[in-house]
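can u do me a favor
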């Protein structure tokens, strides 16, 4: 067996320790004689798994009691629709478009109702986060929507928007559990776990309970947050295995010291790359310094052929999945929680060597 340093944007690297635990339980979870994949979601054993996962997540993020935690399916992209259907009671919501994921969320809202574009950084290929200090929010907007970390272009909000008393909704998929957040500042947080937390197929929604509408006659049952909140995410069969692995990752995070410790580790990891990029004469970062993501680091040489050569040679050296997203080109290193600091140093060392050989 040989593991590579995997810089994929998602599905992405998971902690080796968690993969080993999951593997060890594959034939026999905790003396049950079966794997978590094979047991009823109505069994006391699985109830214990999902309860513990929720409790650990609440502890990690300091989620207040007046927020519900849901483990959903359908892809995080489905939340672009269901968030609007559940929270925009008057059919109106306002959006900041800072990258491709918020752009997609805005597009869904436009299908479903009256969505207003408050600000965008489309003019510079989403290489920065728009000024959100004084947004022209409509008085009757149901919420203000952001994607707090744009996975493709590698931006992260340095500060949350001033929502002027309106509810803030944030897609945190590619930064979920990478740093502490003050949950009380949000009405709803959603995240697909395949970026930073677990296997694809689970989305976590953290929503203030008073925002879970009870009378949504026009919304399909499965798309109502109330359905899942009332049933403890067990209205129908959930992604049992995915939730189990997320639970293992929550424990791994707790053992490493929680989100404050992760944030320090993530800041240090990102600094290794950004410091290198800022000093390099070959490579450069594509993102405005104050808005740089700690998780997704796009960079370019400025020469498409050289970019291609870099990606190929890096892969041969065990540094894989560094090709940039087709919308940006160049390279992108996703350095999620589970990417060890050694992986980031190995990448920076490789870049330095490549620069020497190709100047
Ligand atoms: C990947 C991603 C999504 C979409 O997730 P799917 O589960 O593939 O639908 C949404 N938002 C962000 C920020 C993402 O990175």
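np, heres the sequence
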């Amino acid at each position: 067996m040989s593991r590579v340093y995997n810089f994929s944007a998602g599905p992405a690297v998971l902690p080796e320790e968690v993969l080993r635990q999951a593997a060890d339980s594959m034939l026999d979870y905790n003396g049950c004689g079966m794997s978590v994949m094979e047991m009823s979601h109505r069994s006391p054993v699985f109830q214990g798994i999902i309860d513990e996962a929720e409790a650990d997540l609440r502890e990690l993020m300091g989620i207040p009691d007046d927020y519900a935690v849901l483990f959903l399916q359908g892809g995080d992209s489905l939340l672009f629709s269901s968030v609007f259907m559940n929270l925009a009671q008057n059919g109106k919501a306002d959006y900041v478009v800072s990258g491709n994921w918020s752009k997609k969320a805005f597009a869904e809202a436009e299908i479903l109702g009256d969505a207003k574009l408050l600000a965008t950084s489309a003019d510079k290929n989403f290489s920065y986060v728009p000024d959100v200090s004084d947004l022209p929010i409509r008085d009757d907007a149901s919420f203000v929507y952001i994607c707090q970390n744009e996975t493709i272009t590698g931006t992260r909000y340095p500060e949350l928007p001033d929502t002027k008393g309106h509810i803030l909704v944030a897609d945190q998929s590619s930064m979920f559990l990478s740093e502490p957040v003050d949950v009380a500042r949000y009405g709803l947080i959603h995240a697909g776990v395949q970026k930073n937390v677990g296997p694809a197929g689970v989305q976590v929604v953290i929503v203030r309970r008073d925002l879970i509408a009870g009378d949504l006659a026009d919304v399909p049952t499965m798309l109502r947050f109330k359905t899942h909140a009332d049933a403890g995410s067990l209205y129908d069969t959930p992604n049992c295995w995915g939730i189990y692995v997320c639970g293992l990752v929550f424990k791994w995070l707790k053992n490493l010291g929680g989100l404050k410790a992760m944030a320090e580790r993530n800041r240090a990891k990102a600094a290794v790359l950004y410091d290198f990029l800022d000093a390099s004469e070959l490579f450069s970062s594509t993102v405005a310094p104050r808005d740089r993501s700690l998780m997704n680091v796009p960079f370019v040489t400025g020469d498409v052929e050289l970019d291609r050569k870099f990606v190929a040679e890096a892969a041969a050296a065990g540094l894989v999945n560094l090709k940039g997203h087709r919308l940006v080109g160049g390279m992108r290193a996703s350095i999620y929680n589970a990417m060890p600091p050694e992986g980031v140093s190995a990448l920076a060392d490789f870049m330095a060597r490549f620069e020497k050989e190709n100047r």
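The first helix runs from residue 16 to 24. hope that helps!!
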